[in-house]
Description:
The structure holds two protein chains of two kinds.
Chain A: H1 2-22, E1 41-47, H2 56-70, E2 74-80, H3 86-96, E3 102-105, H4 109-116, E4 120-121, H5 129-132, E5 142-143, E6 146-147, E7 149-157, E8 160-163, H6 164-169, H7 178-190, E9 194-197, H8 204-217, H9 221-229, H10 237-251, H11 264-272, E10 276-280, H12 286-293, E11 298-301, E12 316-325, H13 331-340, H14 344-354, H15 371-381, H16 393-408, H17 414-431, H18 433-445
Parallel strand pairs in A: 1-2, 1-3, 9-10
Antiparallel strand pairs in A: 3-12, 4-12, 5-6, 7-12, 8-10, 8-11
Helix pairs in contact in A: 2-14, 8-10, 8-16, 9-18, 10-17, 16-17
Chain B: H1 2-16, E1 18-19, E2 22-23, H2 27-34, H3 36-49, H4 52-67, H5 73-85, H6 88-98, H7 104-111, H8 125-154, H9 157-165, H10 170-199, H11 202-208, H12 220-229, H13 234-267
Antiparallel strand pairs in B: 1-2
Helix pairs in contact in B: 1-13, 2-13, 3-10, 3-12, 4-8, 4-10, 5-8, 6-11, 8-10, 10-13, 12-13
Amino acid sequence: MLRKLQSCLAVSLALGLVAAAAGCGGSSSSSPSSGNPSGPITLTMWYWGQQEAHGLTTFVNQSIAAYHKLHPDITIKPVLQSTDNLMPNFAAAAKAKKGPDIEYRWGGIWGLQDAWDGNLAPVSDYIPKSEYSHYLNGSEDTYENKLWTAPWYVQPSFPMLYRKDILAKYGITPPKTFPELMQACSTLRSHGITPIAGGVQDGWFGGWLFSILESQSLGSVNDLKEAVVGQQKFTDSNQAAWWTALQQMIDHKCWNDDIGSLQLYQAQQTWVDGKSAMTITAGTDVKKFVAQVGQSKVGVMTMPSYANGAGAGKLGSTSQTLGISSWSPYKQQAADFIVFMHTPKELSLFYKDTGALPADDRFNPAEITVPQVKQLYQYMLNGAPYLENFIPTDLDSKANFGGVQLMFAGKETPQQAAQATESDMARIRTIDPELIDNFKKWAQQQ
Amino acid sequence: MVFVYGYGIYRLVEEATHRDGSSVGLDNLHIALNDPFFRQAVGNNLRLLLTLPIIIAIALLIAILLYEGMTGWRFHRVAIFIPYMLPVVVVGVLFGQLLTLHGAVNQALQSVGLGRLAQDWLGNPDWALRSLAGVIIWRELGFGVILFLARLLSLPQNVFDAARVDGAGWFRTHRSVTLPMMRSIIGFYFVIEAITLMSWVFSYVFVMTQGGPGQATQVTETYIYEEAFTANLPWLAASAAVLLLVGIVGIAAMFLAGRFIWTRMRAA
């Protein structure tokens, strides 16, 4: 009996893997075309952003309610996604051709990869140019003259927040250059203060550091695109300089010693708690942090410069976006709701609820009341491309997330990290040539 | 059964042998096998597999102690089984907090003068997989203990009495009497845990380390997940899944073959 049970269980467990793994395959089905419903319809909207723009859920709920009042036949069901599941959940939905009608995407390649895979319908097919030309940073979401996802709100990426009270206490002026930052780190450390709070356990901060440091050493974003397609190398001095800058920060003990243990948002909280002098946050989150710490105590600046490339002294300027699923039977209705969220009243409510800046040039900046957000608005007007949006997402997660973790753990040198990035990119070029072909076309038209 | 498993396997193999709608034979499997990230993931699974003798030995020892009615055995029996009843996600979140650099484990070490042993248990690539293995052992132990205890309780008591009358001590009794009679259940547990360590550790890894730092705790399942849902390479994920399936079936087959040979040898 036992032997039979053993045999059955062993084989069943082994075969049970198949059911899970087969989910990787999925079946294809034809995409229904956008129709004109004769009765009530329900749209599903998967969104993210409450994590970085506190109050977004409030805005989404009120906006949906207001839209339903205007269009009683249209009900919109919002589903907030977690950070780690945002991409995988949509990938799974795309395989099944079932899921949201409206989907949240980060800017640039984060949305375009899905466009290239046929999972998104271009929003410009459903929203007139006279409307979407008001949306900010749409160029990074444009491919073959179509806008694939609609900019929703701006993400100034990524400001450094500092505690004025802590810096002043130790006679430190906000650093503008790397030598000044290193000096500040040494001074703060000598007084037992953690200079900068960060967390890389969940990986995401690695992508942020890549973007804000790498942009300082590149002539333009084109250098990065050339490295992706193999015309430059990630080991070239301009491409690899950011790893050295990061190592310099580590050597000067600029970061919290438990950076490898903490997730990004956990680390930012330690700054709120007064345990560190500086941190790096999402631009959309600044209003929240200012409210938590106190307006008089918070200063905003860009990452101090170690080089004088195109992005030095600037923030990345990108917009978080909304796309329409290619399988949605209600594409036009989905687009209409996106347009509704860009109406003046909704733009105003968006800022009021979240403190984040709507990605629309019709938003009246006079509505910004928080000085730190006003400063961000100025940075945004003079922003640079946000580099994380211009590399394959797989390269980001393997080379940047992983490489930064290893450097903080003291297990990789800047040279090794740059070499690993080059190897990872070579791997992607080999196994996913289609992605590279699409990337080349996109890069050429930018 | 045929539909669930048969169709699943068919879809998996189809995905693993096609790219862009065309058959590519075994090319995808070849690419997966040569992918350094896949190799590292398999290597980490195999390293986790090395904990299997430890799990079995500890589970067996605890089961014997409980069987012999150690003081407070009822409490210990429940306490040991509770971790197995906890959802892996809860265990992962709990240990994720305990094992941070300034977490309770290191604080406890410091409070008893062992601060030099403190580590960034999950943030240090040298320790992350070992820490993960420790958590897996902690949780999986309960199942083994209960399984072994149930078997011990079903063994004839007179055999143990006879061994004692013959002058066998504790160690000799269990080595020469208990272990031979437990062989089949130990083998069963071995297979179950081997499969667990090869293909059921996703939740531990995903919650506690997400495969990091770097690729230090990446396992085959998280590799499959990443390639399918982050890199958008379903054919590569399916290829890795096929290889994993072959590996697991191989383990099960080796176990069954071993049992068959053993039975034949004993019969002869």
